[in-house]
Amino acid sequence: MSERKIRVLVAKPGLDGHDRGAKVVARMLRDAGFEVIYTGIRQTPQMIAEAALQEDVDVVGLSILSGAHMTLCPKVVDLLRAQGQDDVLVVVGGIIPDEDVAKLKAAGIDGVFGPGTSSEEYVAFLREHVQVAA
Amino acid sequence: MGLTRTRGARSTTDLVAGVLGSDRLALARAITRVENQEADATALLTALYPHSGRAHIIGVTGAPGTGKSTLVTALAQSYRAAGMTVGIVAIDPTSPFTGGALLGDRVRMRALAGDSGVFVRSMATRGSLGGLSKTTGDVVTVMDAAGFDRVIVETVGVGQAEVEIASTAHTTLVVEAPGLGDEVQAIKAGILEIADILVVNKADRPGLDRTLRALEMMLEIEGNGARYVRHHGQLLRVESPVESDEDEATWKVVVMKTVAMGGTGIEELRQRIEAHRTWLMESGEMALREQLRIANTLENIIRAELNRRIAASMPASGLDDLVEAIRRRESDPYAAAAGLLSAV
């Protein structure tokens, strides 16, 4: 009687304190049946990686509005890999200029979601890319 | 690299060795397999169980908004300052409608970040109603085996009847806050009866005196120092009137004041928890609580397995034919149930 839920860490790295978007995403994922671990604002990449490990999440979702994504996102990916979590899906949402999307993907970010992404799109992406081993 | 993530590559033996060898990722993954009741969950628990039994398990329960998460954080910091390692299991409710959950206890626990002597795991109730989830006890066993000195279990915000924590923890804290309920709330049975220590958190808020009075009065009415005794396999609650505090056979439930946000009263609370642990061991009550905990675990395992067998032996076509036969009075529900169960 295996009961597997997809676990998602929703985190806001960096110094901007606007967490409305992150909270909306967290709620949306909860309503889609995911288990969402919400950690709050002003998280360092180290705090995010540590929480991702302890919670053994399948997905790390980062919300960044400050423009610091090119520094923060690759750092989170590197820390996750260094601690053996290279099987965790990392996605970022927020204000990401188009020209940075390819760079983020090259740095190991699996998905970039800008404003206007529908909840169906987001949920479908996660369901498609998280393969839950029985 | 490919986008799709496939999990669960590590072997059971590898995970067991990792949990016992302070490998935090192994601990995290072992907890996941146990929580999800994956194929090797029983094998994992069987291998880890002999290494458990060393941690002191502290339950923290109370109504939503009493500051449980902040209190747990402050307690964990106090234990760390005393040189002890702490595992935390924080439980939040699963939505009965979507099956999803928003686990937010970590928001209050950021002060614990970066400390390798602490491990925080959030769990969703996944349909359980007793304040814990079905596998919380098993996850506590994994943390215990991993070598944490203290394991703190924070229940969901509970009302008056979610008392499951008392059969999981060695020491149960019931947390109240000023201004949440009137005197009558405090007299109601249930949650207050499971307290080994009553905590009034947010003690800097207005209404403190009233809350303290109500709780003290409740303790007087209820009698103090109740004990659980196993008698012919039944669990009995025995009231022992408080005549003297020196009588080491009884434990006096006291009301402690804390302001978890500012750290006020936390050191005293930790010392009271440790005093309770000492009393449990010296009075022989620890063995009783362990028996209670083990009996509870055993019953849960048996019940889960029986449920599985019952589900597996039900007719593939469902119960419709039987229901219809009973409706026509060709059979009755009692004989039909007996017939089905004889096949289990």
Please outline what is shown here.
Chain A is an alpha/beta fold and 134 residues long. Chain A has helices at residues 20-31, 45-54, 69-82, 98-106, 119-129; strands at residues 7-11, 35-38, 59-64, 89-94, 111-113, 130-131.
Strands of the largest sheet of chain B, in order across it?
Answer: 5-3-6-2-7-8-11
The largest contact between protein chains, plus residue counts on each side, is: A-B, 44 and 40 residues
Order of helices and strands of chain B: EHHHEHEEEHEEHEHEEEHHHH
Please state roughly what percent of the residues of chain B sit in beta strands, choosing from under 5%, 5-15%, 15-25%, 25-35%, 35-45% or over 45%. Answer: 15-25%
End-to-end CA span of chain B: 49 Å
- Percent of residues in helices of chain B comes to 40-55%
Q: Helix/strand-derived class of chain B?
A: alpha/beta
- Specify the overall morphology of chain B: globular
Work out the helix count of chain B: 11
Number of strands of chain A: 6
Strand content of chain A: 15-25%
Could you say what the CATH topology of the largest domain in chain B is called?
A: Rossmann fold
Query: Could you estimate the helical fraction of the residues of chain A in percent?
Result: 40-55%
Quaternary class: heterodimer
**Main sheet of chain A, how many strands, which sense, barrel?**
5 strands, parallel
Largest sheet of chain B: 7 strands, parallel
> Average pLDDT across residues of chain A?
89
Q: Provide the CATH top-level class of the largest domain in chain B.
A: Alpha Beta
